[in-house]
Amino acid sequence: LQTLPPVQLAHKYFELFPEQKDPLWQNPCDDKRHRDIWSREKTCDRLPKFLVIGPQKTGTTALYLFLIMHPSIISNSPSPKTFEEVQFFNRNNYHRGIDWYMDFFPVPSNVSTDFLFEKSANYFHSEEAPKRAASLIPKAKIITILIDPSDRAYSWYQHQRSHEDLAALKFSFYQVITAGPRAPSELRALQKRCLVPGWYATHIERWLTYFPTSQLLIIDGQQLRIDPATVMDEVQNVQNIHFRFDSHKGFWCQLLEEGKTKCLGKSKGRKYPPMDSEVNHWLFLSSYYRDHNVELSKLLHKLGQPLPSWLRQELQKVR
Ligand code: A3P
Predict the structure, then answer these.
(1) Average pLDDT, consecutive stretches of 10 residues, N- to C-terminus, the chain (319 residues)
(2) Ligand 1, closest atom to CA 56?
(3) Atom of ligand 1 nearest to the CA of 60
(4) Backbone angles phi, psi at 135, to 5 degrees
(5) Do strands 216-220 and 141-146 pair parallel, antiparallel, or not at all (unpaired)?
(6) Which residues are annotated binding-site positions?
(7) Distance, CA of 235 to CA of 176 (rounded, Å)
(8) Nearest residue by C-alpha to atom 18 in ligand 1
(9) Which among 268, 270, 271 is the best mutation to test ligand 1's pocket, defined by most ligand atoms within 8 Å of the CB?
(10) Which pLDDT value is given to residue 319?
(11) Cys bridge to 119: 23, 52, 152, 244, which one at CB 3.0-4.6 A?
């Protein structure tokens, strides 16, 4: 019997089992063999009970802030690297391991009543996130927010412009959404990131291959925007938070005790021109998303979920 020093041995191991280079973390406390070698100083309670998965630009920050108004709902601490979001399940951060992830969460003072959660809006369309999340936190609730995918695409484009994404500054929205296969690669890449998260049914189906329907909560983003109190009532009965419409901001904001309002920052509810109705943006996007929206309506039917009003309007255009 031969052996090697640890690093060389590890190299040898991965030569023999290359498929194991990509780990799939499980909760160490769920398996006795893991629990036995898990440090006594550590706990398995520093994991989220629910995830807000996005997609981006649907109101995820509003939902996040409304949720943390509740004293028992606690989020992760911000990550300086990834614009505050942890982005564990979708990216290479996953390879940093579960200790790295757990360090973002406090040890809950009461495990049964405190709800830890995390919001990373890129989880929604990630190929890897559903499988990885289901492996580590199989009981977690998954919350997604849907708005008209055309509005989402436009809001995302404006978001990229204000972050000074060079391609977004260089090309008009119309150029982005209509770019063909021969367009420059930077434009094609931007187009993909702009449009693909809006294939709602495809992404939701992927989550549902790993999580039971009962754990999925779909929020109508339009309703969240115009009537946040009702939506928050439906989400885990988050009550006792008060809103007031701020006409200057044009959105509902938190009503503080002294009668003032606390709104989201400038980067949420941005001021930008509406989609130009002269150019055929709407027609293009409506036809681009038609099949995806039809699929979404079938899926929601199957799940016994109501259709959001924007989806009903879109489907009427199909007929
Ligand atoms: P716009 O800035 O394009 O209007 P996310 O947080 O997922 O990035 O979503 C941002 C979007 O949340 C904003 O897009 C805005 O329309 C929407 N939103 C919903 N409710 C809001 C609120 N109460 N305050 C600010 N923005 C809100």
Answers:
(1) 91 92 91 88 92 97 91 87 87 93 92 90 98 96 96 97 96 96 96 98 98 94 93 70 86 87 91 81 92 97 94 85
(2) 7
(3) 7
(4) -75, -40
(5) parallel
(6) 155, 252, 268-272
(7) 35
(8) 59
(9) 268
(10) 60
(11) 52
Res 236: pLDDT? 64
Torsions phi, psi for 177 (to 5 deg)? -75, -25
Other residues' Cβ atoms within 10 Å of the Cβ of residue 42: 14
CA of 268 to the centre of ligand 1 (A): 5
Catalytic residue among 21, 49, 57, 298: 57
Assess contact for 66 and 239: CB atoms under 8 A. Answer: no
Upstream peptide bond of 55 is cis (omega within 30 degrees of 0): yes
pLDDT for the residue numbered 143 = 95
CB of 64 closer than 6 angstroms to any ligand 1 atom:
no
**Radius of gyration (C-alpha) of the chain in whole angstroms:** 22
Q: Which residue, chain included where needed, has tokens 């293009």?
A: 284
CA 119 to CA 55: how far, in whole Å? 10
pLDDT recorded at residue 69: 85
Supply the pLDDT for residue 278.
Answer: 66
Interhelix angle for 281-303 vs 149-162, to 10°?
Answer: 120
Distances (CA, A) of 227 to 47, 110, 143, 245: 30, 31, 18, 10
- Output the CA 57–ligand 1 centroid distance in Å: 6
What is the whole-number distance in angstroms between the Cα of residue 30 and the centre of ligand 1? 38
Quick one: CA dihedral 117, 120, 123, 125, positive or negative?
positive
Known catalytic residue at 81:
no
